[in-house]
Amino acid sequence: MPDAALPTIALLATGGTIAGAQTGEPSGAYRAGSLPVEALLSAVPGLQRLARLQPEQVASVGSQNIGLDTWATLVERVQALCADPSIDGIVITHGTDTLEETAYLLSLVLPWSKPVVLVGAMRPATALGADGPANLYNAVALAAHPQAFGRGPLVLMNDEIHEAALVQKMAANGVDAFASPNGGRAGTVHAGTPRFVRPAGAALPARFALPPRGDDGSRDWPVVDIVHAHAGMDGAVVDFMAARARGIVLAGVGDGNASDAVLDALERAALRGVAVVRSTRTGSGWVGRNVEVDDDARHFIAAGPLSPQKARVLLMLALAAGVTQAEAQALFEQA
Ligand code: GLU
C-alpha cells in the first residue's frame, strides 16, 4: 500500500527499448515499445517505497518515430502536470535514439520548476542484464528528490544524471552510450540516491511556446532540415532543401565548415530567407561566428554548443516565434 506522505510522480510512457521485447533468442533482435507501462512498473521492485506513481501511456513507439504531433501531445501533457499541484515530479520513459531531442525541446517549452526526468534503456526489457528496471528506479528516485528542482529536464541513464542541453547519445550500443561531452554529467544516482556535481539554478519560466495551430488544428512546426557535410560535397542537397525548408542546419565538418560549393548553396538559401545555422558533425565543441566561415557576409547563424539535432529543435521554436536572425544568434550563444 503506497504511503500517502510519499511524493506523487507522474510516469508518462512513450515506448522505446525500455519497453522492448525480444523477438528471437540470441540474435539481439527486438521490437521497441512492445510492453505497456504497467509491465515496466511490475519489473521494478521497491518503486512503491519511493513514490506514489501515476502511470499513463502517451505513445508506444521507437523514438525514431516520435514525430512532431507526438511531441506536441507530450509537451501539452507535461505542461498540465507541471501546473498540477498534486504532482511532485514527472518521469518520461522514452526510446534512446532521439531522447536528447525530446529532453531539449522540453527544456525550452517548460518552466524549470518541478523535476522532469527522461529515462530509457539500451537493452530490451526481456534481455539478460536489462538496464531498464534500474534506470527506471533511479529516475523515479531522481524525480522525487528535492535537489532535482530548478535544473530543467534531466536524463537518467546508466546511474548518471545529464542536463537536457548537454546530453547526447554517443554510441549505438552499450549501457554507457550517453554522455554530456560539452560540460560533463550533472551527477549520479546509485541505488536510488542522487548526488549532483553542481548546484541547481532558480526556477525559470518557459522560454518558448509550442508553434501555433494551423488550419487543420495541428501545430504548425516550421520545416527545418539537417544537412550532413562530407569531403568532396556539392551543393545539390542544400539547393533541394532550400526549396521547402524555412531553416537548414549544417552538420558541418570541424568547426561547422563545409566545401565552398555547400557554403555557396547555403548562402543562396539564406538570401532567399531560409535561416541557416552552422553546427558540427564532430559530436562536441563550440561553433563560433566568423572563425573560418564569414557568417556576417554569408548571413549564417553559428550554433554555439548545440549539436545539429538540438540546433534544429531550437531553430524550429525560434522560427515559429518569429525571431530575427540577430535574436536567433543570441539564442544559440545562450543555449
Ligand atoms: N530505436 C529505438 C528507440 O529509440 C530503440 C532504441 C532505444 O530505445 O534504445 O526507441
From TrEMBL:
InterPro entries assigned: AsnASE_II, Asp/glu_Ase-like_sf, Asparaginase/glutaminase-like, Asparaginase/glutaminase_AS1, Asparaginase/glutaminase_AS2, Asparaginase_C, L-asparaginase_C, L-asparaginase_N
Domain of life: Bacteria
Active site per UniProt: 17, 96
CDD domains: L-asparaginase_II (cd08964)
Keyword Lyase: no
Binding site for substrate: 63, 96-97
GO biological process: asparagine metabolic process
Keyword set, alphabetical order: Hydrolase
Gene3D superfamilies: 3.40.50.40, L-asparaginase, N-terminal domain
NCBIfam families named in the record: asnASE_II
Protein name: L-asparaginase
Species this chain originates from: Bordetella genomosp. 13
